[in-house]
Request: fold
Amino acid sequence: MSMIRPESFEYTPVGGAPYLQHTAFDKSPCNRNRLACIVRMIEACGQGPKNILEIGCGNGNIAIPIASLGHRVKAIDAHGPSIEIAKGRNRFPNLQFEHVPLEQVELKDFDVIVLTEVLEHVPRCGDMLGHISRGMRPGARLILTVPNGWGIAEFLLRPSYALKRWPWGARLVGGIKRILAARDLTTSNEQTPHVHFFTLGRVARLLEENDFSPIAFRRFFWAWALLETFLSQEKFPDKLPERDFHLSQHLPARMCALWAFLLEKKAG
Reply:
């Protein structure tokens, strides 16, 4: 399956949308624009509140702002401490956090499923996509985001992912990031190495094998993802990541740091 042509979209600045007041992602250009992309893809699924499932929700920095828009959201994660942090942050009755495995969730209950920055951590990622595809109801949508496994950031960060396979290595990487004043806003689980480094071709094959068709495809950032990983985003004026973002909208998708897909299950 060939990948559809990527669509361009506008950079979201600090405080650029009301839902950003409900997330720590507002000060993180990469995460803020990933969230903005997800929100826009949800909007593309039709008007009105939707039943949404987020798989691998971490500390809730995506589920909470989505719930603030009026959607009914269930968010799950395999890491209990992250779920407890998310529950402590939640102020919305239409949002439920649960520490449960994906296999215990009835997927046909949801209009939209969000799987963002998760697949690269899952050894049997094809099995996960297959389970989601089989469980989705007709007409439902999957929003998937993954990093470019051969982009600048992922290529240079591979030694840190190798270290994270062991508890002592995860603590070492965490210590280095703390010295550099960097923060991981997505999860409280330090031992989360990437075990897959995706190319667009491999993503296309995974989607084809699991009966997904892309409705929309977006790409964003080039080098900023690397800078944001190890340097505090608060030390830089927002114009710098904005320039990197705008550059990415003119680059081939294979050169960009992050990819986002709006998907539907094939009929039949």
